Amino acid sequence: MGYVSIWPILVLAFIHFFGSRLRFLAGIPRSTWLSGASGVSVAYVFIHLFPELHQGQMHMEENVVWAEKFLEHHVYLVALIGMSVFYGLERSVVSAKRKQIKRDQGESKSPKGVFWLHIGSFALYNALIGYILFQREEEPTQTVILFTIAMALHFLVNDFGMLEHHRGNYKKYGRWVLVLALIIGWTVGYVKEVSETIVVILTAFIGGGVILNVLKEELPEERESRYWAFVLGALLYAILLLSL
């Protein structure tokens, strides 16, 4: 195996370690920078990742017999499944937290069981992203940079969402778990190469997850999100992607 660049995984790990310390990003109304970061993540999925999935769809139709017979657009179905899975996990976490708060007479601290469910789902999410990141080692440096920037900003948005749900538990345990999962995923990519079909499926799943995780942070009315910042972030990154 040739030279392997580790800077992308270090950048993403750095975000989890120190991103939550950027206190100016916290609070309501939602930070302009977080809304802009959400826009960047979504722009990357629609402008760069989904076109890759189109190529992956053609690969799967040529190489996976059951895919062609079962569903013509099944790569996009995987993206839909990814979005649905993370939506279901998020709803279960929110529901469990509300029930616990009622039992505890208004105490807003998230129960440990809910915390570990939430962290476990995002640990899997991070591991898949780490794996996909390594698979991009053979792609042009420009492609790796664009993916890393989009995921770094996406992680920043996720971190503040986790802080809102879990506060001290996330700072004490959660960020370490997410960094470890990210590194494990990257390491698995280093020691074990899988077929292009599996990489396409994982990428589609993550694409759906990114869209859901961005929207769940931006849409709630109580967040008072900055729509103009979201649109500006998406527009500027889309222009960048289309110009390269």
UniProtKB/TrEMBL annotation:
Taxonomic lineage from the root: Bacteria, Pseudomonadati, Bacteroidota, Cytophagia, Cytophagales
Keyword field contains Membrane: yes
Transmembrane segments annotated in the record for this chain: 6-26, 33-53, 73-93, 114-134, 140-161, 173-191, 197-215, 227-243
Protein name per UniProt: ZIP Zinc transporter
Stretches of the chain forming a coiled coil according to its record: none
This protein's UniProt keywords: Membrane, Transmembrane, Transmembrane helix
Annotated source species: Pontibacter locisalis
Chaperone recorded as keyword: no
